[in-house]
Fold each of these.
Amino acid sequence: MRKPLVAANWKMHGSDQFLETYFPALEQAIDSDKVEVVIFPPAVYLQKAAGLCQQLQAGAQDVSQHSEGAFTGEVSATMVSDVGCRYVLVGHSERRIRHRESSKTVAEKFLAAVGQGLVPVLCVGESLEEREANRTLAVVQSQIQSVIDLAGLEQLTNAVIAYEPVWAIGTGKTASPEQAQEVHRAIRDMLGPAGQHTRIVYGGSVKAENAMTLFNQPDIDGGLVGGASLKVDEFAAICGSV
Ligand code: PEP
């Protein structure tokens, strides 16, 4: 039985004051027996976020592939773990596209995270062009294969995978439940028998109004939520939809 997971990616939003109102309000609203809820705030707030967590979990939006050294601005997996976080996003499309992270770099980040006992949430997804060229499954499978090649299948099946079609992120366009289910099923098939316990969550303009139909699909185990996660009431409603 896979426990549903719903995560909030705050991206570059939030403040000290925002954390202080958001975390207690969300703690009140969720039931951690039914859903695991992870908040990904900007890195400077991770320590504070981890300290505010009771039922909630905190995680980093990115991690360096290097363990330490002259990498100005980077945060290592050891540091993320040191401040009390358990999760880390790797391969978010904004990093793949804007920061030109290749699938090889993403796989290295994944490996650095598991090496420190963190649980990576591996983000994969196709662009609109790729979907229109019928390349969705090939693109997603190749992004996943890069991680399998470097870290091994077992590490991946113990992680979380977020299917996030790039054309649905921050655009208000959501994949239909059928479109998302098709990709989630293909990902699970690719993982083999161990993939039965792997959580595969959907991301891309998830809101309170569409969460339930998405989460009702057999291979969708929750969501990764950007914009709608910044409104605590709406995000709590999404968490309650699993
Ligand atoms: C995301 O950034 O991971 C995301 C899914 O964003 P949004 O919900 O705003 O589309």
Amino acid sequence: MLHAVIVRCPHAHARVRAVDTSQAERMPGVRAVFTGTTPEAALAWRFGEPSSPFKQSSFLFDPHCRYAGDEVAAVAAETLQEAAEAARAVRVEYEVLPFVIDPRQALRPDAVSLHPDGNRVGEPLVWERGRLEDGFASADVVLEESYSTPCVIHTTLETHGCVAQWDGQRVTVWESTQGVWEVQEDLAAVLGLPRSSVRVICRYIGGGFGSKYRLDKHTLIAVLLARRTARPVKLCLSREESFLCVGNRPSAQMRLKAGLTRKGVLTALQLVNLGVPGAYPDDTDVGYLVWDLYRCPNVRIEETSVMINAGKSRAMRAPGFPQCAWALEQMIDALAEKIGMDPIELRLANAKDFLYRRNETPRLTSTALDRCLREGARAFGWAEARRRPRAEGHLRRGVGVAAGMWPNPGGPPGSAIVKLHADGSVNLNIGTTDIGTGTKTVMAMIVSEEMGVPLEAIQIEYADTATTQYAKVSGGSQTVITTGPAVREAALEVKRQLLELAAEELKVPAAELDLRDGQVVHAGGAGEPRPLSKLQALGQRQVLIGVGQRRPNPPGAQGLPFVAQFAEVEVDTRTGEVRLSRFLAAHDSGRVMNRLTYENQVFGGIAMGLGLGLTERRVLDRHTGRALSASWHDYKIPTALDVPGEMECLPVDPHDTECNNLGAKGLGEPATIPTAAAIANAVYHATGIRFTEAPITPMDVLRRLAERR
Ligand code: MOS
């Protein structure tokens, strides 16, 4: 196996004049050096991903480098060390160009242009309903405020990486990915191969959060190097590259105006957002929660997206939602105070019930947002905590709440195959990647419960485009609710076949038989249980196969998850430090499939939201345009010492029998949507200071406290 290293542009904006690979090619162990002029690397690359809706494209090694990190060349060598040394020996002559990293400056007509059509990604997107002027006219209170969230990085524990190997016209890629089928589709399209000739396998993945959603350049580079050298090629990005080159949550600069009656009825919401996808186009819209979390007749949202010379954004855990919650849920908090209403009561007054037909979107099969707010408040001790004295020496204590929702109900296509062997053991076959959320555990539990076989008897084949069947990407909080129902149906199909065989053999009607502990049992308790391995009919067939499909969601309806989160903070007025002392997350994600993996999602989401609210941001150097925060030393993700000492997960299950055959709804993304906003509201409650710019750093707190004094 060879190892590959990518040569990246060190300038925020530059044009490659010439690349001299002669020295690198003579170095020990070097087997291939690719640049923009290498014939087989002269491939068009849709900005971002091959499937990107943005029609223009660049090249794999584009001579126009638009951020410090753009790919310029790549080397494959016998060892990683040799590849790294050869990469350093590649001489690139750059014409350094002026750069722009400030989004407002990038919008100006005289700004440096990153692309022929300018820096703006298309025209501003406007969503509108009702009449905004009427809404504000009928309001008793109108508030307007600017909010911002920074660019934050996914920081997957395992960096992006793959191994590529060719066998004739067929390529196999072992990839750390959320979606083997997306990588297969994209690779086949770029290489001009049938999808059947591209095999993508994902065994394990150390975090994705949206950054491992589709084909990346590094994978295509590994595939091309492997074809040239006729050797397997491994290409794993460095930690620094993982901060620079494989995505981020785009920053948002939001202006929000809201109208409210004295009785607490929202009459108008207006959001203007400026999103920054980095150097290439991407979806930076944030407005959904303003559009749809609360009942509000008059809404206008305007989204502008402008490119700058920085690493490109990508989907990141609930794309757009934590940003929007930061603005909307702080605004709701401020509105509640303005009319002297409890912020939970104000949310309840404007929350939608499940009968509400949401602005032409399908009816909800259930919503327990009201229960999340009420039961969460009770479990958290909200009323007492709101009344507790806030000052204690140099500490200021406060509590805050924020809510959210997520718009993905899951759905077809999705399929599963269950095979029952004559000895009673089972293979489950799904195309889904387990991105660390416990997918395999949950799917095995579904089979185990339906078929009455022990968990240990079940093995899972998964996420291999050659040996499993199509599955949607593990993202969008849709995995359990898309693949799970198909798994359940497949298990029930095998059970049906098995009981039919057993009925004949045992001379008992199938309706009176059931499966338990690996045995066929009589429903009434009569007769001897028969172990599956002793069923002659099963032995004669050797295997029973059941295929399950993900059925469509109920016509005109969908099951969506809701969340309310509660934070308690201590603000140290001497150091400016905000400590999250207590946190409670009340989630309506429907049925809890597995308590451990459920809590794991929720606690992970809280930690990530804490980072957005208090510690994380990409810092670009205004002198060079380069990212100064490209390591875990300089980029501050929360650690075990930062997460709340008391963290509670409160599932609220509306027993939704309509949304799908599991009664489960999405969870992974809701878990991080309102977290930062809840913290900001708690900081306001503690200090009386409204922090509208995330993250709330100790320096900001000290500065604002000093200003107030
Ligand atoms: Mo996600 S951001 O749908 O992996």
